[in-house]
Amino acid sequence: MARTAVPGRLGDRLRWRVAEVTGRRVESPTAVTVVLDAPDWPGHLAGQHVDVRLTAEDGYSTQRSYSIASASDGQRLELTVQCLPDGEVSPYLVDELAPGDQLELRGPVGGWFVWGQEQTEPVLLVAGGSGLVPLMCMIRTREMAGSRAPFRLLYSVRTPDELLYRSELREGSPGLDISCLYTRQAPLDAPRPPGRVAPHDLVRNGWPPDFEPTCYVCGPTGFVEKAAAYLVLLGHAPERVRTERFGG
């Protein structure tokens, strides 16, 4: 599949712009969604991310990349951030950032791990933990566009308490099938015991290779490498398996 064009001029996407926090939602005990107002935002594609830069009073500056969770909607952006215990940026974004605060943003970034509204083929989304964030952007963009492309989401998370977007996923939408797998603790009514994603999970909850779905896999590096390898082993064309990973 051809790479998708990225909206906005390159120079505009590479400049830093100031965004104001207008709200925040708690998604889990360790994750929040930050709602931002970003004037002159050039728009984004489902699956892209932004660079966030923080600068201290003494001039020290640091930056991190975060996937965009919201569908493209004017100058409004949503970033879902998972707090890392030893992180330098995420604890501040999760625990201290408040409405009225400002962040510097650069982007959107990325042109390969994206879903476009013109795509009509079946889509398989495979998420590990907070790897759901860019895939949720795809789900929301699909719904906003009124697309009939069939989506299936396989969401692997450690425990029920760590589910992101719980109520929204529970409501679902036509043409979207959702399966949640738990690796450490599962609800009593879960269809399978706790465990890591295995090939039979991808067979049961995914699409047959002859349907030629586009597969998007996002999560920690180890999760992504295994899930992508399983998909190819099951017969999916490597060029139809797109991956995005985080961590070492």
TrEMBL record:
A Pfam family matched in the record: NAD_binding_1
Keyword list, A-Z: 2Fe-2S, Iron, Iron-sulfur, Metal-binding
Domain FAD-binding FR-type: 14-115
Cofactor: FAD
PROSITE patterns: FAD_FR (PS51384)
Name of the protein in its database record: Ferredoxin reductase
Lineage: Bacteria, Bacillati, Actinomycetota, Actinomycetes, Kitasatosporales
Organism domain of life: Bacteria
Alphabetized CDD domains for the sequence: FNR_iron_sulfur_binding_3
